[in-house]
Write a structure and sequence with these properties.
- The protein is built from 27 helices and 16 strands.
- Bound molecules: benzoic acid and magnesium ion.
- Benzoic acid is lined by residues 36-37, 256-258, 310, 312-313, 443.
Length: 603
């Protein structure tokens, strides 16, 4: 669909998707957590969706050194009151080896607080939710996986779920509903509708095998989203301040379709909350535009928010694109002191620097050209076809510099976009779903990473990058570095996670290798990957002979590609392994390449 010219909605026989598909029925199997892309498939491709389940969810749990540290912490708890200095020293040694605290200076005062901090970090890892393996269409979920998934749902689902509901969730997960759904669709029969969403927060996505529906665009952001969005705005500002930063004048913000669809537009409301704006609804409750919240009520300056939208967001939520643009315009026009209204302040500065009228200088919403999607920064990273990081920034600007205003019409405004992003004090995106972490898929590098690289280039220095994790009931803001570390420990290096992937053969091995490429993408776009991540990945997956053989047997391309990625990370200066590790990596890489050639020769 991406490369087919034509409208996003209401296709006519002049649009290519319509011309190509003609009278053919279009049945499209879609993940139950991806209603945004699914909705595009319906609108542009006339698709009937048949939903399939995402993988089982479980607590990450602890393993190896993390489990040993936990044992020491338990011992500390038993002897509380009589802090044993040897035990405290051991905890610091174990924790610092895992990069959970500094190795020096040795903890002396307030050791209980230091130990408590380590305990909090370990608990976050132990109870982090992770996806296990891949879902296989046609197979119900196994008993142990159901048990863990339902435990995760208990942590995240709406409180009004009853025990009877859980027993019903359980029965539906045990059984396959997808093959019957596909067969019904192929028979040309009715497919019942289902909401899209994350299983843990929206258990109503089961039974799968149904046709995903979206939402009423005139109701987004909802009253619930406005409350939640304001909380998220405060949470982000509080975290940024707690990290020792001044109140931000500008925030660079990525908006996707999916997380907005699953939360009635909460990220949109978060942006409005930062700006001190709100939606305006007409007498029958239909969204008609934006309004400003008076400064006296807001009680702080209006933050200038520069939004970069996925092409999917732009297509799915045109009213909300206009809402955001109108909020920026109204704030730019407001007769308010500039030290309380950073949007107006910057609009006046952009006008002075770039010329043009106030309406143009007030543009803050950027996305792709009509009909195009993605920044392609992830594709550059994937193919390695780039030399300088600045090329990644330029690619992002080229693809994403299209400014969307309060009035119809789109204009390429690369200079304004770079100026506006160059003023950002931080970059931010909400995480979408437990199944899709910042290292699981490459689209966060594509959007948040690419945008961040533009900030770094335009500003001449790096800014903090934050992710909002609202996939559970309790929201949390983490730095990108913290998020990458957490995901690396709980997913990539966690036997529970990688064994579940390996059990799926070539696709699981491909997923493991994909994580390494995405990790490299974070180094390239944000430089947020600590050395131990590359060290431990190399040790676990490449230098361990048995593991290397298993990966190569499952997917020789993925195994060789992974070793090459790690060498690339070193070549590009993102990682300095020891000389011994580098030599061992080189040998392993050559062996994997030889193996690949052997495979090709046989083929
Ligand atoms: C979106 O919904 O906007 C989206 C989904 C997946 C990847 C990128 C964007
Ligand atoms: Mg796709």
């Amino acid at each position: 669909l991406e490369f087919m010219p034509g409208k996003q909605v209401g296709l006519s026989d002049g649009c290519w998707p319509d011309r190509l598909i003609g009278d053919l029925p279009n049945v499209y199997l879609y993940a139950s957590n991806n209603s945004s892309e699914g909705t595009l498939a319906k609108r542009r491709g006339g698709a009937t969706l048949v939903s399939y389940l995402t993988p089982p969810i479980a607590n990450a749990g602890l393993y190896k050194e993390l489990a040993s540290l936990k044992a020491s912490l338990d011992r500390f708890r038993q002897t509380e009151g009589v802090a044993d200095p040897e035990l405290v020293a051991m905890i610091q040694t174990q924790a610092s080896a895992l990069d959970l605290c500094a190795a020096e200076p040795a903890w002396a005062d307030d050791t209980t607080a230091q130990v408590a901090q380590v305990r909090a970090k370990l608990l976050e890892m132990e109870y982090a939710l992770i996806p296990l393996g891949l879902h296989v269409v046609g197979e119900g979920m196994a008993e142990q996986a159901r048990k863990e998934t339902i435990a995760a749902i208990r942590e995240s689902a709406p409180l009004e779920m009853t025990e009877a509901d859980y027993a019903k969730l359980d029965a539906m997960l045990a059984e396959d509903h997808e093959i019957p759904g596909i067969l019904r669709a192929l028979d040309g029969r009715y497919i019942a509708p289902a909401p899209g969403g994350d299983l843990v927060r929206t258990p109503k996505v089961v039974p799968t095998g149904r046709n995903l529906y979206g939402f009423d665009p005139y109701k987004v952001p909802s009253a619930y989203a406005l409350i939640e969005g304001r909380k998220r705005a405060d949470l982000l500002l509080a975290r940024h301040t707690a990290d020792g930063n001044a109140f931000p004048e500008t925030i660079a913000f990525v908006l996707w379709g999916t997380d907005n669809m699953k939360s009635e537009g909460t990220p949109i409301a978060q942006v409005l909350g930062l700006m001190g704006a709100a939606p305006r609804f007409d007498a029958v409750g239909r969204l008609v535009g934006a309004r400003l919240i008076p400064l006296a009520q807001l009680g702080r300056p209006r933050v200038d928010v520069v939004c970069t939208l996925s092409g999917i967001f732009r297509d799915l939520l045109p009213l909300q694109v206009k809402l955001l643009a109108e909020a920026a315009l109204l704030a730019s026009q407001a007769d308010e002191p500039i030290e309380m209204n950073f949007i107006r302040k910057h609009t006046l500065e952009h006008m002075a620097a770039l010329g043009g009228d106030l309406e143009s200088a007030a543009l803050r919403v950027f996305s792709n050209a009509d009909g195009a999607y993605g920044s392609n920064v992830n594709l550059l990273v994937e193919t390695g076809q780039w030399n300088e990081e600045d090329e990644l920034a330029d690619q992002f600007v080229k693809r994403k510099c299209y400014a969307y205003g309060a009035k119809p019409g789109v204009k390429a405004m690369p200079a304004l976009m770079q100026r506006a992003l160059g003023g950002a004090a931080l970059a931010f995106q909400n995480l979408d779903s437990v199944e899709l972490g910042a290292t699981d898929i490459d689209q966060y590098v594509e959007s948040l990473g690419g945008m961040n690289r533009v900030i770094t280039k335009a500003k001449g220095e790096a800014v903090p990058v934050y992710l909002g994790d609202h996939t559970g009931r309790e929201g949390k803001v983490r730095t990108l570095g913290e998020q990458v570390a957490l995901e690396t420990r709980t997913r990539m290096l966690n036997p529970k996670w990688f064994e579940a992937q390996l059990a799926q053969g070539y696709e699981g091995a491909r997923n493991i290798a994909g994580h390494v490429a995405t990790t490299l993408g974070w180094s390239a776009t944000a430089g947020s990957v600590p050395t131990w991540v590359y060290d431990d990945i190399t040790t676990t997956f490449v230098l361990d002979k048995a593991m290397r053989d298993r990966l190569a047997a499952a997917n020789p391309n993925a195994a060789a590609g992974m070793a090459n990625r790690l060498m690339e990370a070193h070549d590009r200066g993102y990682w300095q392994p020891s000389a011994e590790m580098l030599a061992a990596l080189r040998d392993a890489s050559e062996e994997l390449e030889d193996r690949l050639e052997g495979v090709h020769a046989v083929a």
